[in-house]
Specification:
The chain has 147 residues and is an alpha/beta fold. The chain has helices at residues 11-19, 35-39, 55-63, 90-100, 114-122; strands spanning 25-29, 46-50, 76-79, 109-112, 126-130, 139-142. The chain is built from five helices and six strands. Helix 3 packs parallel to helix 4. The chain is globular.
Length: 147
């Protein structure tokens, strides 16, 4: 055990967050996303499992330690529902609330079409798969800096 770190934080996720640098992205994906095949194309090649976590819970766990990028146009992105455009579903609203709960993370949050999300996730540093069952419950988190 370590002081100040949520005991639910798996060692491989902590290691990944520590290895990421400013501007590196983490794809937080639901249980339907092709996480293994996408992770094989990421910078680290890592797919990290976070069983028992919804996407908003996973994001809350990550952002408790990792600042989001306030210098980029969006420090976080959520996957749009096909044909719906930037209209957030409940899973997106919950994740946005989790991000905005920390006043030190003042990044902009945007949306991205599903097909573009797949391409961007493959360019991420790593993929974090949670057990979110709600469709389109996928997110990109861009690492910021501590000022």
């Amino acid at each position: 055990m370590l002081k100040g770190i949520d005991p639910r934080m798996p060692a491989d996720l902590l290691d990944t967050l520590m290895r990421m640098g400013h501007g590196d992205e983490l794809a937080v994906v639901d249980c339907n996303f092709p996480a293994h095949s996408t992770a094989s194309r990421t910078h680290s090649g890592r797919m990290i499992e976070l069983p028992g976590f919804s996407a908003p819970q996973a994001i809350e766990l990550v952002t408790a330690l990792m600042p989001l990028d306030s210098f980029a146009p969006e420090g976080a992105l959520w996957m749009e529902v096909d044909g719906q455009g930037p209209v957030p579903e409940a899973v997106h609203r919950e994740a946005i609330a989790a991000i905005q709960a920390d006043p030190s993370d003042s990044c902009d949050i945007g949306s991205i079409a599903r097909s573009a999300f797949y391409q961007r996730a493959a360019q991420a540093y790593a993929v974090l798969r949670c057990t979110e069952t709600r469709a389109f419950g996928c997110f990109i988190l861009r690492k910021g800096v501590i000022l």
